[in-house]
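Quick illustration, no need to memorize.
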Amino acid sequence: MQFTPLLSLFGNLEQLDTVRLNFNQESVNLMNIAIAFIMFGVALSIKPQHFKTLAFNPKPVLLGVIAQYILLPALTFVLVILLRPSTAVAMGMILVAACPGGNVSNLISSISKSNITLSVSLTAITTVMSLFMTPFNFAFWGGLYAKHSPLLVPITIDPVEMFRTVFLILGIPVILGMFVGMRFPKFARTVEKPVQSASIIFFIGFIVAALAGNFNLFLRYIHLIFFLVLIHNGLAFLGGYLLPKTLKISEINCRTISIETSIQNSGLGLALIFNPRIFPPELHLGGMAFIAAWWGIWHIVAGLLLAFYWRRRVITSAVMP
């Protein structure tokens, strides 16, 4: 495969494809449990009014959904067409863009003094939509990328199997969490914060352990994807901010949509990548795994930096929308 001069700044990304991260089936199962636990905790706080926001103030919510499921995948497609990384790296970028927003976005929105209600509403809505939108977006943009890159090795997936995996990891915990939250509201309010805190600590602990188990690999290859993920994530922040800004949405909501667009559930991406029924190991998709794994670390770092910057910049008018 021929790389463009711009991409040569990152080195030969194809060497990532044959790299295998140190993840056995037990690690994958533990990661899936961690994600499911997190989503259960998020769903405990999902209330009917989060969906009613669509009726009372639909514009910011609709723009947030558009930024998440249309703008970010489209920007990602343009980026991989321009840079032409290896097939696996490109598909990893497309998969991350197809995932829903991550629940860390609610914490980052809180630190940045953004619109928490909008943040939680968008997380709830995009998580529910991810059952269909994640498989659809990956199949659509991945297929479009393959057509525009005839020299690349095609990667095909089973959308039904991807839907099944997303449903098991996200759908069931979200349904259970919403049921508990609505059926037993007092109990849900009591355990909501402890469950959410414990789930985030559990997941961060898993990330640290996974990083420690693959530390030498990251040291050896991080220079290949660091700036690529930085550019990709930066585009997500910028696109998520400028779309509502151009349409005269309030600054506080622009910041919220920007955060929601750029904080992705990359853990779901890793869970899909390590599912052999979706991506057989013989495809050599080390580049996909590296992109999803590093995005999961970098978006938190970038999100916190931006959150503390915005926190110090007082919004003079927080009028809705």
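Residues 1-5 have pLDDT under 50 and may be disordered.
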